[in-house]
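Local shape tokens:
==================
===
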Amino acid sequence: QVQLVESGGGLVQAGGSLRLSCAASGRTFSTYAMGWFRQPPGKEREFVAHITWNGRNTYYADSVKGRFTISRDNAKNTVYLQMNSLKPEDTAIYYCAVYTSVRRTVLEAMRVQNYDYWGQGTQVTVSS
């Protein structure tokens, strides 16, 4: 029922910035918490950021805390990931996803198993 489309990825030098967007279909978008994940080459998908349904609470992986900012505009059915001070280790395919678990802890918000709807991903490459 829900479809997600990521955009905004590309090639950037270390220290640069990118802003990713995730456009969601459906009028029920605003009732779900959302997350960003990434998958570096040769590695498993890992948690990046999470935002609650009303945007009042956000959670970040330690590796991106202080550099990335997740936000959402429910009127536009869109979630964003502002990425600043990018590092080569940020290189990955970035995915947005819908949080569908009834659990409400920070630990559970970081688990990929708690997200059921995914976008196609957008490539982010950071050169040194």
